[in-house]
Amino acid sequence: MSEPRPPEGTTTQRLPVLDKTPTALPPLLPESSGRFWSARRVPAGIVALLLLAGAGVLLYDIAAVRAHRPAMHWRRALARQLAERPLDDTWVLVGAGIAAAVGLWLIVLAVTPGLRELLPMRRPHLDVRAGLRREAAALVLRDRAMDVSGVRAVRVRMRRKKADVRAVSHFRDLDDVHADLDVVLADTVRGLGLARPPALSVHVRRPGRKG
After folding, report:
1. Nearest to 125 by CA among 26, 11, 209
2. Buried-most residue among 8, 82, 85, 185 (CB within 10 A)?
3. Helices H, strands E: what count in the chain?
4. pLDDT surpassing 90 at residue 8
5. pTM score, whole prediction
6. Please, which pLDDT band fits residue 29 given cuts at 50, 70 and 90?
7. What is the dotted CATH code of the domain comprising 133-205?
8. Domain residue extents for the chain
9. Looking at beta carbons, which pairs linking 92-97 to residues 24 or more positions away fall under 8 Å?
10. What are the start and end residues of every segment in region (Disordered) (predicted)?
11. Is the pLDDT of residue 12 over 80?
């Protein structure tokens, strides 16, 4: 039998074949999730205001001296003190120590990220960043620990690299409660989606006697 021909004046077109192969999901990028950097507006604003005020007063005094007016008393006293006091004087050493401490503090603020309360999470995409506060992570761990049979009270202290969990059990064997907590909390930490999951430190004890 011959194939039916299309009517005259019509055209045929072969449709494209769709590829039904499932596309893979983008991998998570835990290594690219660094800590969040603080804007440090308060320290920067304080330093800027102090420098602006000091520079303004000094420029005003210099302009006054250029206009044949006497210099301010504080600048004359400071110049006299710097000229008369030796370098091993107590007040000179104290002032140098304070200046060095302030300078070291500013350097530490400049080179450290800050925002220690915010834990970075894994990044499914390069243009997406998310963070979880330590209080929220500790609350999740505490709620999951309270669901374990035999646990009466839980106290969680969440650090950047370690989660310290201290539980009180009023029944069941302590080793069994400790094993259940290890399993439940390890699964909870993985479920938080943190870029660098903290290490778990679990301690279980009996409640203290009243009186």
Report:
1. 26
2. 185
3. 5, 5
4. no
5. 0.58
6. very low
7. 3.30.70.1350
8. 41-111, 133-205
9. none
10. 1-23
11. no
